Amino acid sequence: xxxxxxxxxxxxxxxxxxxxxxxxxxxxLVSGRARANATAFLVGWFVAVGxxxxxxxxxxxxxxxxxxxxxxxxxxxxxxxxxLLLLVALRQWRQRPRExxxxxxxxxxxxxxxxxxxxxxxxxxxxxxxxxKNLLLAVSGGAAIxxxxxxxxxxxxxxxxxxxxxxxxxxxxxxxxxLTAGPRAATLLAELRAWLVGNNAVIMAVLLLVLGAKMIGxxxxxx
Length: 223
Fold this sequence. Notes:
The protein has one domain (2-222). The model has no long low-confidence stretch (mean pLDDT 86). Helix content is 81%, strand content 0%. Helix 2 (19-29) runs antiparallel to helix 3 (34-62), helix 3 (34-62) crosses helix 7 (132-149) and helix 9 packs antiparallel against helix 10 (185-222). The protein is mostly helical. The protein contains 10 helices and no strands.
């Protein structure tokens, strides 16, 4: 179990620091239904990320016999995932706003103020399990767990839960600020939102570069 958690933990941290979901929670916390929407988003995010990771882990773990070691195709899949992560990192870097330029604001951000808890949970699913960058990371984490779990369903489930928990710490952080900072919460959250929106592309580019290189290395080692 330790190997499954350890192999996937760096990828979970990568999901944790993904800026856009954190920005979504910040915007919900300054909307009219702050607590209900933020709670629905947190639950939706945890379930979506955990489900993707668990499904990939179970499929990967069931693909090869327990006593045969990792099949060669697992290494190939990891290399392909790593290459995809590097390509997305390059795209993010090219799309970074130039110095002094205002980064474009996604349309869904403008609509968050009118969100209901159901729509908040739906946005969490979209950002956690459909958004290409986070989906790639979740698939990579699931593949790492499945390889290390060697067909052990219990290990895969526990490791997927740990992955989802760690990956949810980033979106939970603004809620902690909201509940503990008192009157200063609005100012702190506004500053956090501005910084994350302005640096989203650079953060994701560096993150995907590191995780892509790691995934390629793991894939080569598994061949």
